[in-house]
Design brief:
Length: 184
Amino acid sequence: MRITELTPTDEVIIQQIAAILVDGFAENWPGYLADRDAALNEIRKSFAEDRISLVALEDAEHALGWIGGISQYSGHVWELHPLVVAPAQQGRGVGRALVATLEARIRERGGLTVILGTDDVSNQTTLSGVSLLPDPWTHIARIQNLHRHPYEFYQKLGYVITGVVPDANGAGKPDILMAKSLAH
């Protein structure tokens, strides 16, 4: 596996990533990238100057996964958005390698913190399907993973839950906010 910058001229790889995005988000975030055009638009946005776009390749013509980073707060903070790995490649270290490479690139640019949101729109955690207000921290402290929600993947990589956006995706469908310091 090789991880490299994705560029606008990598059309074959871009098309593969679009398919991976639609497939990868269809169940866990329906409507976000509902079709190939929406996925291609998301990929093309990743080529902006304030972004990082990385692809994991099995060989020169086969994409395994993709990750993006968006500069915020004058480059001190970067949002990890998005991360997707082909379903057949999940659990094989592709996502872990993409995150590690993104973090290294962010450090090179002087970034101190990485943030991300990991939505729960399909009752994968105990934060879904309930009213999180007025005391979201009680719910966060008792979070349980009911059905392979990715927050635990990020925890294994050193990310911590820093909050939640209740009802971000509709009633009882929160966005779980996470962060990791790169300063040390």
